[in-house]
Specification:
Layout lengths: L2 H13 L15 E5 L5 H11 L3 E6 L14 H10 L1 E4 L5 H8 L6 E4 L5 H10 L5 E5 L26 H13 L3 E6 L1 E3 L8 H9 L4 E4 L5 E2 L1 E3 H10 L9 E5 L5 E2 H12 L6 E4 L24 H7 L7 H10 L14 H10 L8
Helix pairs in contact: 2-8, 4-5, 5-6, 7-9, 9-11
């Protein structure tokens, strides 16, 4: 793609005349199938959809309870949600079995939160020939690494990305002719996050340990709150402007690695942390990750979503991290236990001793 063409497409992406859907309550009630919905993103998205009057059915393997009360909701809110949300137990890898369970249910909309490969998506489309929209959770990780940032939706993608399956799925949706929308989040955070993003920092802050940061710590990235992401997913529902479109969704501001550490400290009420910088090339960590984020500049433009959907993030970084801390880690809940083994390797090599609490 020529530079002039890219500039033109970016300008169009920002200036596109939009049909704004400000809330799902503006949309007639739909019969919605959600693939996933019991771990993180879908927990918040399903609640918004049910509250807006849609009939939501979660398709999961049943290994996680279909509903669990979350810290931010009242008993009454949870009772109302759990009484309305429906469930189909099955394995999406069992294509014939899945198709038999969803084909005659009359679903109009699919929210695919956990799809990874195109081969998992095609049977769903085939089973619901009258599908009105397929809304897919992709990833900003599909973009080809570039010196020119932020990433726009029209930028080159990486065919060797570990998220190649999501690229293939977007291509499949386009080829099938079904109305579709793909959301590409950057790093997602918030209560119930099962990826060790903010939790990684909170563990070290709580233990009073130095925080190892690769290289300068000035690498710039972007975090988006899960509730803002759920809001964006709602706004593309039955929205003609969003048909056949891809949207980057994340926070409004970019942040450095060092800035994330300091923001997490503010969110949890911890002292300003000691940051320790190291060169990852000096270590052999085996299969363990010494830091939860990719060691590079990585951030996107969210202007297209703001213009097309009337969406904007409600959470600033510190406010969002405070929400995550207060409703999750600060309550003593987390997904993964603390593992400081790579930290200890770094600190030992740098000659830094860690004071062990009495």
């Amino acid at each position: 793609m020529q530079a002039t063409d890219r500039t033109r497409l970016r300008t169009q992406a920002v200036r596109r005349v939009s049909i704004v859907t400000t809330a799902s309550s503006d949309t007639p009630a739909k019969k919605i199938l959600m693939m996933g919905g019991t771990r993180f993103i879908g927990v918040y998205l399903a609640r918004l959809l049910v509250k807006a009057g849609h009939e939501v059915t979660l398709f999961t393997r049943g290994k996680t309870p279909v509903t669990q009360k979350i810290a931010s909701e009242t008993d009454q809110e949870y009772a109302e949600y759990s009484s309305k949300v429906k469930h189909i137990q099955g394995d999406r890898q069992d294509f014939d079995g899945m198709k038999s369970k969803i084909a005659s249910a009359g679903f109009e909309i699919v929210y695919d939160i956990n799809g990874r490969e195109a081969v998992e998506v095609e049977p769903i489309i085939d089973a619901i020939p009258s599908l009105k929209q397929y809304i897919y959770c992709s990833s900003a990780g599909v973009y080809l690494k570039s010196d020119l940032l932020p990433h726009f939706e029209v930028d080159a993608t990486d065919p060797k990305s570990r998220h190649k399956g999501k690229l293939d799925t977007e291509a499949l949706l386009q080829s099938k002719g079904v109305p579709w929308t793909s959301i590409r989040p950057v790093y997602i955070y918030g209560p119930l996050n099962y990826n060790p993003v903010e939790e990684w920092f909170f563990h070290r802050l709580k233990a009073g340990r130095p925080i190892p940061i690769p290289n300068s710590g000035l690498q710039i990235t972007q975090l988006g709150h899960v509730k803002d992401l759920a809001d964006a997913f709602v706004r593309v529902l039955d929205n003609p402007t969003a048909f056949g479109q891809v949207y980057n969704i994340s926070g409004a501001k970019y942040v450095t690695f060092a800035g994330i550490a300091r923001a997490c400290a503010k969110a949890g009420g911890f002292p300003t942390p000691e940051l320790v910088h190291y060169n990852p090339k000096d270590f052999d960590f085996g299969k363990k990750k010494s830091f939860p984020l990719r060691d590079q500049h990585f951030f996107t433009s969210i202007e297209k979503a703001k213009n097309d959907l009337g969406w904007s993030p409600k959470y600033g970084l510190v406010d969002g991290l405070t929400d995550s801390y207060n409703l999750d880690f600060g309550l003593g809940t987390f997904r993964k236990a603390a593992d400081f083994s790579t930290d200890d390797m770094i600190l030992e090599k740098l000659g830094i001793k860690v004071a062990v609490p009495a």
